[in-house]
Structure formats: C-alpha cells, structure tokens
Design the sequence.
C-alpha cells in the first residue's frame, strides 16, 4: 500500500477506502494508456506553467505515469532533472519502462537525467517544482502529503497540482440518493480546504481555481465503462458484494433519465487546480538557525523582490 494510503480517521471522514484505491491503481496499471481525462487536465495545467517565471533545475512528478504529464514537463523544462514518483510496484515498473530511451535517440545522450522512484523511497530534496496531476482526490491523508511536498522543495520552489472536486458526478450522486443506494463516489475535498492545507504546510501565496467539465456518452454502457476506466467507486460505504445483471440493467435504465434532448448522457467533473510557493525561512535575531545554501540564495532573491509570475 502506498505510503500516503495507510488507513486513518481522516479516510473515514472523507469517505475514501484506501484498499479500494490500491485495487483501482492496480487495475488502471493494466490499461495501455492513462485515462483520457488525466491527459487533458495535464495539458490544461501545463498551460499555467507559462505564467511562472521560476525555472526549476529539479522537477518531481508525483504519480507520474498515471498523471500523464511527463512529456509536457520535459517540453516545459528540457534542462531540468526529473524524478518520476510512482504509487505502487505495478506503476513503478511501468515508469521504468517509459523512462527508457532508445540507444539511437538523441535524448539518450543530450536529455536531462530522469529517475523513477516509489513513494516509499528516499526522494531527493531541493526540487524547484513538485507536479501532481489528478491524484490528490485518491490520497487518504492529503495534509500529510502536502507537508511532505513542502519538505522536498527548495525555498522559493513551487507545487502545482490538480484533482477532482466535490462537484464531480453530482448527477450520478443525486440519482443514487433518489434510489436509496449507497453513494457512488468517495468524498472529495473542497479547493478552499486545499488552500488551507497549503498555508498550514508553510506555502505562501496559494492560488486555487476550478472548472467544471461535462463529459457526454451515447449510451449508459459506454458511460459506465468510462467511469471504471477512471478508477471506479472507492467510497467505503459502497455496496460490498457483487451486483447482479438485473441490478445492472436497472442502473442502465435509470441512467437514461440523465439524457439531454440530443439523447446523450452527461456527467459533471469538477477539476480543482492549485499552486503555491514554498516560503523562504525567516531568521529570528538571537536564535541559532541552520539554513542551506540554496535556501539562503532564495532568501536573497526574495529580498530583491524578484517577481514570480508574469
């Protein structure tokens, strides 16, 4: 089980089953590509990098293969050393495979170094950027993970992430509630709560934003297949046994009630985006303080008022 996925009281409060998350990760690792939605959100998040002047020398890409942002990060920071962090053994093997460069590729000889590590490994600190696309909604204790990211960043480095928010699948949750069925989704964290976690962890100037994407399908069967490809239901109060074909048929009939005038079925996905800079350490007169050389340089840059964004 990934380091941040150990069961806790917070997981119950969030309605998130850590064991179900691990099972979903193993199932997703068998797919040839990460979910389409992950790749699309990664593309949108990468566009925001253009607004940030900071040029990291070390980039940590959290849940890299599933997040589908590795190529985008390589394009944005071709000279930066990258560390791809994967959640479990299956994704770690996949990450190693993707990181291999053919002997005839010019990138093999001229590209920046890329390493692949697991969450439980010793991740190198001093990063200029921690990037985490579409994964925080599947983490049992996001507060602890955000604090870990803060410790891996150099002063004046920044974190950028995206995840699903509370508006996700609201139509499906309303349908299940009307039928008296257990909730079909885990509990999602509001973006403002993520902002509070960032501040509490020692980040400065957190910026949170969100957008709602509506995906449409031609029929209930295609809709359900897509939801399974996105990870499935990881709520702890979901139905524990196997559903029958009769129940599946009823679900497909009920889903028809979501049809638009053109006959397509639509579901909402709220995507939250966040980024924040690690605040430079503050020195207090009269106290013995140890500060790394990189952090000291960041403090000097901050004192000179170097703008961070365009």
Sequence:
């Amino acid at each position: 089980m990934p380091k941040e996925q150990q069961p806790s009281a917070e997981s119950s409060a969030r309605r998130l089953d850590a064991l179900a998350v691990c099972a979903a990760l193993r199932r997703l690792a068998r797919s040839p590509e990460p979910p389409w939605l992950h790749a699309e959100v990664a593309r949108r998040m990468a566009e925001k990098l253009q607004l940030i002047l900071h040029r990291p020398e070390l980039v940590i890409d959290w849940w890299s293969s599933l997040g589908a942002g590795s190529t985008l990060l390589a394009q944005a920071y071709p000279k930066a050393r990258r560390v791809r962090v994967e959640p479990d053994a299956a994704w770690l093997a996949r990450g190693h495979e993707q990181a291999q460069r053919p002997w005839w590729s010019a990138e093999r000889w001229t590209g920046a170094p890329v390493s692949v590590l697991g969450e439980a490994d010793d991740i190198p600190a001093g990063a200029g950027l921690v990037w985490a696309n579409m994964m925080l909604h599947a983490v049992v204790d996001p507060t602890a993970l955000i604090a870990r990211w803060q410790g891996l960043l150099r002063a004046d480095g920044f974190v950028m992430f995206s995840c699903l928010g509370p508006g996700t699948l609201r139509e499906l949750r309303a349908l299940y509630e009307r039928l008296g069925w257990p909730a079909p989704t885990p509990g999602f964290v509001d973006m403002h709560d993520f902002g509070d976690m960032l501040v509490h962890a020692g980040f400065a100037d957190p910026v949170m934003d969100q957008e709602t994407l509506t995906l449409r399908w031609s029929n209930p069967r295609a809709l359900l297949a897509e939801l399974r490809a996105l990870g499935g239901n990881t709520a702890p109060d979901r139905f524990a046994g196997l559903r029958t074909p009769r129940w599946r048929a009823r679900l497909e009939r009920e889903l028809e009630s979501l049809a638009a005038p053109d006959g397509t079925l639509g579901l909402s996905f709220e995507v939250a985006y966040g980024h924040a800079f690690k605040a430079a350490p503050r020195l207090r007169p009269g106290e013995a303080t140890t500060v790394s050389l990189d952090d000291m340089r960041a403090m000097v840059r901050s004192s000179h008022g170097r703008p961070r964004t365009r």
